[in-house]
Design a protein that fits this description.
mainly alpha; rod-shaped
């Protein structure tokens, strides 16, 4: 629902920004958007970007999508880490398991919160439950704990990687959309050169500007998306490793302390 609502809104905002802000007549000589951009101030930049053509608002939308979903993933993954350091939390859980202090380990999970704590809490609750099941042998109890940890992990991981596909898609299409704008700009530039007699220098400069602006916006969007995707992937891998490490500690603790 978040993506389905946010993406159309960002596209609408991009087109409004392009036509209302970038296309403001004050950004052009003679207050004519068909003329040259003014030579000084922020209006010069706005007018120049506006001259990039109709592909520009699409590229602006892609960049806004990348920024918005990067912020959303940053908040989500920060929340998934919990309140404290994950490595410290895992060490505390190991210490409590070594002392067979399951109740305090569960309380520690409640304090930590986050994905790692949620998974380990589920395993610890199952740990306490199977201890009171005399009808199960050791291997069956270990299998039950492992299954609980796997199920809890399967519920947490999709939340961590959700919407990353949008960022990775934007990383791929941003450069391609920019390339479309570049090609359109170069077509206009060569069309201006192909005129009989002296070439239309205004049309030539407009075509070249359009090509370069679209190229720049496409590359910027792709670079940001690639950096953010790799950053979030690394964070997710770190959290996954913490979950696996803590889960292994729970299983090993049970295996070593119970027959």
């Amino acid at each position: 629902m978040f993506a389905a609502i946010v993406i159309p809104v960002l596209i609408l905002i991009s087109f409004l920004f392009y036509y209302i802000v970038l296309g403001d007549p004050a950004n052009f000589e003679g207050n004519d958007p068909n003329g040259h951009p003014v030579k000084e101030g922020i209006g010069s930049w706005f007018g120049t970007i506006y001259k990039g053509g109709v592909i520009v608002p699409i590229l602006i939308a892609v960049n806004l999508i990348i920024i918005t979903f990067s912020i959303e993933r940053l908040l989500t993954i920060s929340k998934a880490k919990g309140k404290g350091n994950v490595d410290t939390f895992v060490r505390n859980i190991r210490t409590m398991l070594a002392a067979d202090d399951i109740d305090n380990a569960i309380l520690e999970c409640d304090k930590q919160r986050g994905s790692t704590a949620n998974v380990i809490r589920s395993g610890l609750v199952k740990y306490k439950h199977v201890m009171q099941e005399p009808g199960l042998d050791k291997e069956e109890k270990i299998a039950a704990i492992q299954k609980e940890l796997e199920e809890a992990t399967a519920l947490e991981l999709p939340m961590l990687s959700k919407n990353l596909v949008i960022i990775s898609t934007c990383a791929s299409i941003s450069t391609l959309i920019g390339l479309i704008g570049t090609v359109i700009g170069m077509i206009r530039a060569f069309k201006a050169l192909a005129q009989a007699g002296a070439p239309d220098t205004a049309a030539l400069s407009t075509g070249i500007s359009e090509a370069l602006i679209n190229t720049a916006l496409g590359i910027i969007g792709s670079c940001i998306a690639i950096i953010m995707y790799n950053y979030f992937s690394n964070k997710i891998d770190t959290l996954t490793y913490g979950i696996d490490e803590a889960g292994f500690s729970v299983v090993q603790s049970f295996a070593s302390k119970h027959q």
